[in-house]
Amino acid sequence: MFHPLRVTGIERLTDDSVTVTFDVPAPLRETYRFAAGQHLAVRRFVDGSEIRRTYSVCDPAPGPEGPESLRVGVRLVEGGEFSVFAHKELAVGDLVDVMPPTGRFVLDPRPGYFAAVVGGSGITPVLSHIATVLGREPAARFCLVRSDRSAASTMFLEEIADLKDRYPDRLQLVNVLSREDQQAGLPSGRLDQERLTALLPALLPVAAVDGWYLCGPFGLVRGAEQALRGLGVDRSRIHQEIFHVEEDGPVTGPRPNPGPGRQHGRRDARRTRGELAVRGR
Ligand SMILES: Cc1cc2nc3c(=O)[nH]c(=O)nc-3n(C[C@H](O)[C@H](O)[C@H](O)COP(=O)(O)OP(=O)(O)OC[C@H]3O[C@@H](n4cnc5c(N)ncnc54)[C@H](O)[C@@H]3O)c2cc1C
User: Fold this and answer.
1) Element housing 71 (H / E)
2) Which positions ≥6 away from 3 have C-beta within 8 Å?
3) For the domain that residue 184 is a member of, what is the CATH number?
4) What is the mean pLDDT of residues 128-143?
5) Residue 53 CB less than 6 A away from ligand 1
6) Residue 129: how many CB atoms within 10 A of its CB?
7) Which residues contact 195 (CB under 8 A, 6 or more apart)?
8) Amino acid 251: pLDDT
9) Same domain as 118, residue 236
């Protein structure tokens, strides 16, 4: 069931990404309550045909009263029907048809050790995971391994750095920048299965992690899953959300859940305490 929600904010995150905030009127707040990591569908009509796309909510999960607003992060996809619209036409005050949040890529706050491997816009649900679990559960820890082209294209750099400042001993950050100059002594190369197999055990006690959250393009998610399985992690501890399948990427395995309709599949780059920047090709 779609409801028209009013856009109350559009903020630029990077040159090619924005956040869009929707107001949730009081009578709909219970309906739009979400768990950390869930996503919502939006739709619009172009020349009489309906376009639906899915975006993960990046806010911390609300309490039982539900959210007053919902915020999503949208990366611009060249020629993309919805993301180009969100970047170039959508304006504060517009109404957008939004479905209540859904999805099983959730992390309910509980004590434990959690880790995520994300690529690009795959950070969006994991930002919600981290803020929710560390904010609500003092006995929770989180390790985030993220892969981006460059610091300038890294979404939510400032918010993640703020979380690191707030939880310096419970949040570990590893940024892998694939298209910036390599620093001497740091590992290089894309975050693929082979590299993750070597990198992850050097960062954290892999077997002690209660839940792994993998999100982003198919190739990265699949490579991370294979690395974790090879390191002996049980399937039940691995959670995955695939945002899209790269056109030149692998063609085997599960494809992203397209959802209903025509769905397809700043702070500067400074490092905060305990954060390791890994730069590669
Ligand atoms: C569960 C789920 C959650 C998602 N959450 C987010 C989110 O929080 N933020 C976000 O930005 N996106 C997210 N996505 C991706 C989003 O739903 C759209 O696919 C994306 O915004 C592109 O839509 P579009 O209409 O602009 O492009 P389209 O018109 O659908 O596609 C144009 C071209 O770009 C390719 N393409 C499609 N998606 C991508 C992509 N992500 N990267 C590169 N190329 C692509 C297509 O194959 C096609 O060739 C999510 C997807 C899923 C399945």
Assistant:
1) strand 69-75
2) 28, 31, 97, 98, 99, 100
3) 3.40.50.80
4) 98
5) yes
6) 29
7) 187, 189
8) 40
9) yes
Q: Decide: 238 and 225 in contact? Cβ < 8 Å.
A: yes
Residue with tokens 């990198």: 199
Burial (Cβ within 10 Å: 0-12, 13-18, ≥19) of residue 151: middle
Residues 136 and 170 in one domain: yes
73 in ligand 1 pocket by Cβ < 6 Å? yes
Q: Which residues of 90-105 are buried (b: 16+ CB within 10 A; e: fewer)?
A: beeeeebbbbbbebeb
Which ligand 1 atom is nearest residue 86's CA? 26
Q: Does ligand 1 come within 6 angstroms of the Cβ of 156?
A: no
pLDDT surpassing 70 at residue 205: yes
Biggest CA–CA distance in the chain, Å, is 56
Residues 70 and 145 in one domain: no
What stretches of the chain show up as alpha helix (H) in DSSP? 81-88, 123-136, 157-166, 193-203, 218-230
* Mean pLDDT, residues 194-204: 95
Measured from the CA of 259, which atom of ligand 1 is nearest?
53
Domain carrying residue 83: 3-98
Tokens for 242, please give them: 């695939």
Look up the pTM and report it: 0.90
